[in-house]
Request: fold
Amino acid sequence: MEREKVTLTGAPETLLATLYGRALDSRAPRSVLHDEAAARAVERIDYDFRRTGITATTAAGVALRGRQLDAWTREFLDAHPEATVLHLACGLDTRTQRLATGPSVRWIDLDHPDVVALRERLLPPPAGDYRLVGASVTDDRWLQAVPADRPTVAVFEGLTMYLREEDGRRLIERITGRFPGGQLLFDCYGTIGIRLQKLVTAVRNSGATLHWGIDDPRELEAWHDGLVLLDALRSVDMPGLDLLPRAGRVEMRVLALLPKLRDVGRILRYRF
Ligand SMILES: C[S@@+](CC[C@H](N)C(=O)[O-])C[C@H]1O[C@@H](n2cnc3c(N)ncnc32)[C@H](O)[C@@H]1O
Reply:
Protein backbone atom coordinates (compact mmCIF):
# COMPACT_ATOMS: atom_id res chain seq x y z
CA MET A 1 0.00 0.00 0.00
CA GLU A 2 1.32 3.46 -0.90
CA ARG A 3 2.22 5.53 2.16
CA GLU A 4 0.85 9.04 2.78
CA LYS A 5 3.50 11.73 2.61
CA VAL A 6 2.83 14.09 5.51
CA THR A 7 4.05 17.67 5.37
CA LEU A 8 2.37 19.21 8.42
CA THR A 9 4.31 21.80 10.42
CA GLY A 10 3.76 23.67 13.70
CA ALA A 11 1.09 22.48 16.14
CA PRO A 12 -0.54 20.10 13.60
CA GLU A 13 2.78 18.26 13.16
CA THR A 14 2.81 17.42 16.87
CA LEU A 15 -0.17 15.08 16.36
CA LEU A 16 2.35 12.69 14.83
CA ALA A 17 4.18 12.57 18.17
CA THR A 18 1.11 11.59 20.20
CA LEU A 19 0.00 9.15 17.48
CA TYR A 20 3.45 7.57 17.46
CA GLY A 21 3.40 7.40 21.26
CA ARG A 22 0.17 5.39 21.19
CA ALA A 23 1.54 3.20 18.36
CA LEU A 24 4.76 2.42 20.29
CA ASP A 25 2.74 1.75 23.42
CA SER A 26 0.54 -0.73 21.54
CA ARG A 27 3.70 -2.75 20.74
CA ALA A 28 5.07 -2.60 24.31
CA PRO A 29 5.04 -5.81 26.37
CA ARG A 30 2.79 -4.13 28.98
CA SER A 31 0.74 -1.88 26.71
CA VAL A 32 -1.38 0.73 28.50
CA LEU A 33 -3.88 1.55 25.76
CA HIS A 34 -3.68 -1.27 23.17
CA ASP A 35 -4.34 1.27 20.39
CA GLU A 36 -3.71 -1.00 17.40
CA ALA A 37 -5.35 1.53 15.07
CA ALA A 38 -2.56 4.00 15.93
CA ALA A 39 0.07 1.43 14.95
CA ARG A 40 -1.72 0.76 11.66
CA ALA A 41 -1.95 4.50 10.91
CA VAL A 42 1.78 4.98 11.61
CA GLU A 43 2.60 2.22 9.12
CA ARG A 44 0.69 4.15 6.45
CA ILE A 45 2.48 7.46 7.03
CA ASP A 46 5.64 8.51 5.21
CA TYR A 47 7.35 10.61 7.91
CA ASP A 48 10.56 10.44 9.91
CA PHE A 49 9.06 9.62 13.32
CA ARG A 50 12.47 10.19 14.95
CA ARG A 51 11.58 13.90 14.72
CA THR A 52 9.03 13.34 17.48
CA GLY A 53 11.69 12.37 20.03
CA ILE A 54 9.19 9.90 21.52
CA THR A 55 10.80 7.25 23.74
CA ALA A 56 9.38 4.17 25.48
CA THR A 57 8.77 6.34 28.58
CA THR A 58 7.06 9.25 26.82
CA ALA A 59 5.01 6.78 24.73
CA ALA A 60 3.68 5.19 27.91
CA GLY A 61 3.03 8.70 29.31
CA VAL A 62 0.96 9.65 26.25
CA ALA A 63 -0.96 6.39 26.52
CA LEU A 64 -1.65 6.88 30.24
CA ARG A 65 -2.97 10.39 29.61
CA GLY A 66 -5.17 9.03 26.83
CA ARG A 67 -6.41 6.22 29.07
CA GLN A 68 -7.36 8.66 31.82
CA LEU A 69 -9.29 10.92 29.43
CA ASP A 70 -10.96 7.82 27.90
CA ALA A 71 -12.02 6.69 31.38
CA TRP A 72 -13.52 10.08 32.27
CA THR A 73 -15.32 10.27 28.91
CA ARG A 74 -16.71 6.76 29.44
CA GLU A 75 -17.90 7.69 32.93
CA PHE A 76 -19.73 10.69 31.51
CA LEU A 77 -21.37 8.61 28.77
CA ASP A 78 -22.39 5.90 31.27
CA ALA A 79 -24.19 8.61 33.26
CA HIS A 80 -25.59 10.33 30.12
CA PRO A 81 -26.17 7.73 27.39
CA GLU A 82 -27.71 10.38 25.13
CA ALA A 83 -24.95 12.92 24.94
CA THR A 84 -22.80 14.97 22.62
CA VAL A 85 -19.03 14.51 22.60
CA LEU A 86 -16.89 17.36 21.26
CA HIS A 87 -13.50 15.78 20.63
CA LEU A 88 -11.49 18.89 19.80
CA ALA A 89 -7.97 18.88 18.31
CA CYS A 90 -8.59 15.19 17.58
CA GLY A 91 -5.53 14.83 15.35
CA LEU A 92 -5.35 11.15 14.39
CA ASP A 93 -6.58 9.95 17.76
CA THR A 94 -9.09 7.09 17.50
CA ARG A 95 -10.81 7.83 20.84
CA THR A 96 -14.26 7.20 19.36
CA GLN A 97 -13.18 3.74 18.18
CA ARG A 98 -11.57 2.97 21.57
CA LEU A 99 -14.77 3.92 23.40
CA ALA A 100 -17.02 2.14 20.87
CA THR A 101 -19.92 4.49 21.58
CA GLY A 102 -23.44 3.50 20.52
CA PRO A 103 -25.87 5.31 18.20
CA SER A 104 -27.29 7.45 21.04
CA VAL A 105 -24.02 9.38 21.26
CA ARG A 106 -23.43 12.27 18.87
CA TRP A 107 -19.67 12.39 18.32
CA ILE A 108 -17.85 15.32 16.74
CA ASP A 109 -14.16 15.10 15.89
CA LEU A 110 -12.64 18.49 15.06
CA ASP A 111 -9.23 19.70 13.96
CA HIS A 112 -7.68 22.07 11.41
CA PRO A 113 -8.85 21.38 7.80
CA ASP A 114 -5.48 19.96 6.65
CA VAL A 115 -5.46 17.54 9.59
CA VAL A 116 -9.04 16.52 8.84
CA ALA A 117 -8.11 15.86 5.20
CA LEU A 118 -5.28 13.58 6.35
CA ARG A 119 -7.57 11.86 8.84
CA GLU A 120 -10.11 11.16 6.08
CA ARG A 121 -7.39 9.44 4.03
CA LEU A 122 -6.03 7.35 6.92
CA LEU A 123 -8.85 6.45 9.29
CA PRO A 124 -12.21 5.00 8.29
CA PRO A 125 -15.08 6.94 9.92
CA PRO A 126 -16.84 5.05 12.70
CA ALA A 127 -20.46 3.98 12.32
CA GLY A 128 -23.18 5.96 14.08
CA ASP A 129 -23.87 9.63 14.66
CA TYR A 130 -20.42 10.92 13.70
CA ARG A 131 -19.13 14.15 12.16
CA LEU A 132 -15.61 15.17 11.29
CA VAL A 133 -15.23 18.95 11.18
CA GLY A 134 -12.34 20.92 9.70
CA ALA A 135 -12.07 24.20 11.62
CA SER A 136 -10.07 26.02 14.23
CA VAL A 137 -11.43 25.78 17.75
CA THR A 138 -11.13 29.57 17.84
CA ASP A 139 -13.64 29.90 14.98
CA ASP A 140 -17.19 30.63 16.20
CA ARG A 141 -19.15 28.97 13.40
CA TRP A 142 -18.65 25.23 13.98
CA LEU A 143 -20.12 25.36 17.47
CA GLN A 144 -23.28 27.07 16.22
CA ALA A 145 -23.87 24.02 14.00
CA VAL A 146 -23.88 21.60 16.98
CA PRO A 147 -27.40 21.15 18.44
CA ALA A 148 -27.50 22.33 22.05
CA ASP A 149 -30.04 19.68 23.07
CA ARG A 150 -27.97 17.25 25.16
CA PRO A 151 -25.47 17.03 27.99
CA THR A 152 -22.10 17.60 26.37
CA VAL A 153 -18.61 16.47 27.19
CA ALA A 154 -15.76 18.35 25.53
CA VAL A 155 -12.49 16.41 25.44
CA PHE A 156 -9.39 18.19 24.23
CA GLU A 157 -6.06 16.48 24.62
CA GLY A 158 -2.81 18.22 23.74
CA LEU A 159 -4.58 21.46 22.76
CA THR A 160 -4.62 24.14 25.47
CA MET A 161 -0.86 24.79 25.47
CA TYR A 162 -1.02 25.75 21.75
CA LEU A 163 -3.72 28.34 22.39
CA ARG A 164 -3.33 31.82 23.78
CA GLU A 165 -5.09 32.12 27.11
CA GLU A 166 -7.71 34.51 25.73
CA ASP A 167 -8.61 31.99 22.99
CA GLY A 168 -8.75 29.13 25.49
CA ARG A 169 -10.96 31.20 27.75
CA ARG A 170 -13.30 32.11 24.91
CA LEU A 171 -13.55 28.45 23.87
CA ILE A 172 -14.48 27.42 27.40
CA GLU A 173 -16.97 30.26 27.73
CA ARG A 174 -18.61 29.40 24.42
CA ILE A 175 -18.96 25.68 25.25
CA THR A 176 -20.21 26.19 28.80
CA GLY A 177 -22.56 28.96 27.62
CA ARG A 178 -24.12 26.90 24.85
CA PHE A 179 -24.99 23.49 26.30
CA PRO A 180 -27.42 22.64 29.12
CA GLY A 181 -24.63 21.03 31.17
CA GLY A 182 -21.70 18.71 30.87
CA GLN A 183 -17.99 18.35 31.48
CA LEU A 184 -14.68 19.63 30.16
CA LEU A 185 -11.82 17.11 30.11
CA PHE A 186 -8.38 18.30 29.08
CA ASP A 187 -4.70 18.40 29.87
CA CYS A 188 -2.61 21.49 30.43
CA TYR A 189 0.95 22.60 31.01
CA GLY A 190 1.93 24.65 34.03
CA THR A 191 3.76 27.90 33.27
CA ILE A 192 7.00 26.08 34.08
CA GLY A 193 6.22 23.71 31.19
CA ILE A 194 5.69 26.70 28.89
CA ARG A 195 9.07 28.12 29.97
CA LEU A 196 10.77 24.78 29.33
CA GLN A 197 9.01 24.13 25.99
CA LYS A 198 12.22 23.93 23.95
CA LEU A 199 13.08 20.76 25.87
CA VAL A 200 10.14 18.99 24.23
CA THR A 201 11.60 17.53 21.03
CA ALA A 202 8.31 17.37 19.11
CA VAL A 203 7.58 21.02 19.89
CA ARG A 204 11.10 22.16 18.99
CA ASN A 205 11.28 20.18 15.74
CA SER A 206 7.81 21.16 14.53
CA GLY A 207 8.45 24.86 15.15
CA ALA A 208 5.27 25.05 17.25
CA THR A 209 5.02 27.63 20.03
CA LEU A 210 3.34 26.93 23.34
CA HIS A 211 1.55 29.87 24.96
CA TRP A 212 -0.90 29.04 27.73
CA GLY A 213 0.11 27.57 31.05
CA ILE A 214 -2.29 26.95 33.96
CA ASP A 215 -0.87 26.93 37.48
CA ASP A 216 -4.11 27.18 39.43
CA PRO A 217 -6.91 25.16 37.76
CA ARG A 218 -9.45 26.70 40.18
CA GLU A 219 -9.00 30.10 38.54
CA LEU A 220 -11.01 28.86 35.53
CA GLU A 221 -14.08 28.34 37.73
CA ALA A 222 -14.65 32.12 37.56
CA TRP A 223 -15.09 31.92 33.78
CA HIS A 224 -18.64 30.51 33.93
CA ASP A 225 -21.26 30.48 36.64
CA GLY A 226 -21.46 26.85 37.75
CA LEU A 227 -18.11 25.72 36.35
CA VAL A 228 -16.56 23.49 39.03
CA LEU A 229 -13.21 21.74 39.07
CA LEU A 230 -13.74 18.04 39.84
CA ASP A 231 -10.22 16.63 39.42
CA ALA A 232 -6.72 17.94 38.81
CA LEU A 233 -4.30 15.08 38.35
CA ARG A 234 -0.61 15.90 38.10
CA SER A 235 1.10 14.06 35.23
CA VAL A 236 3.66 12.87 37.78
CA ASP A 237 0.86 11.30 39.87
CA MET A 238 -1.19 9.71 37.08
CA PRO A 239 -2.68 6.29 37.82
CA GLY A 240 -0.69 3.52 36.13
CA LEU A 241 2.80 5.06 36.30
CA ASP A 242 4.04 1.62 37.37
CA LEU A 243 3.58 0.66 33.69
CA LEU A 244 6.39 3.06 32.65
CA PRO A 245 9.80 1.58 31.90
CA ARG A 246 12.08 1.61 34.98
CA ALA A 247 13.97 4.78 33.99
CA GLY A 248 10.64 6.60 33.52
CA ARG A 249 9.33 5.46 36.91
CA VAL A 250 12.45 6.85 38.59
CA GLU A 251 12.17 10.12 36.63
CA MET A 252 8.53 10.56 37.70
CA ARG A 253 9.33 9.84 41.35
CA VAL A 254 12.08 12.46 41.32
CA LEU A 255 9.91 15.04 39.52
CA ALA A 256 7.07 14.45 42.00
CA LEU A 257 9.39 15.61 44.80
CA LEU A 258 10.43 18.88 43.13
CA PRO A 259 8.00 21.67 44.11
CA LYS A 260 8.04 23.62 40.82
CA LEU A 261 8.64 20.80 38.34
CA ARG A 262 5.91 18.54 39.67
CA ASP A 263 3.35 21.04 38.32
CA VAL A 264 4.70 20.78 34.78
CA GLY A 265 1.50 19.11 33.52
CA ARG A 266 -1.98 18.19 34.70
CA ILE A 267 -5.14 16.49 33.50
CA LEU A 268 -8.28 18.37 34.47
CA ARG A 269 -11.95 17.53 34.81
CA TYR A 270 -14.62 20.21 35.27
CA ARG A 271 -18.39 20.08 35.31
CA PHE A 272 -20.69 22.89 34.27
C1 LIG B 1 -0.30 17.33 20.31
S1 LIG B 1 -1.46 17.23 19.00
C2 LIG B 1 -2.74 16.31 19.82
C3 LIG B 1 -3.64 15.57 18.86
C4 LIG B 1 -4.59 14.57 19.52
N1 LIG B 1 -5.45 15.19 20.48
C5 LIG B 1 -3.79 13.46 20.16
O1 LIG B 1 -3.76 13.38 21.41
O2 LIG B 1 -3.20 12.70 19.43
C6 LIG B 1 -2.10 18.89 18.90
C7 LIG B 1 -3.32 19.02 18.02
O3 LIG B 1 -3.94 20.28 18.26
C8 LIG B 1 -4.47 20.72 17.03
N2 LIG B 1 -4.72 22.15 17.15
C9 LIG B 1 -3.88 23.10 17.61
N3 LIG B 1 -4.47 24.31 17.57
C10 LIG B 1 -5.74 24.10 17.08
C11 LIG B 1 -6.84 24.96 16.79
N4 LIG B 1 -6.75 26.28 17.01
N5 LIG B 1 -7.95 24.41 16.30
C12 LIG B 1 -8.06 23.08 16.08
N6 LIG B 1 -7.04 22.21 16.33
C13 LIG B 1 -5.90 22.73 16.82
C14 LIG B 1 -3.37 20.37 16.05
O4 LIG B 1 -3.78 20.44 14.70
C15 LIG B 1 -3.02 18.96 16.53
O5 LIG B 1 -3.83 17.99 15.93
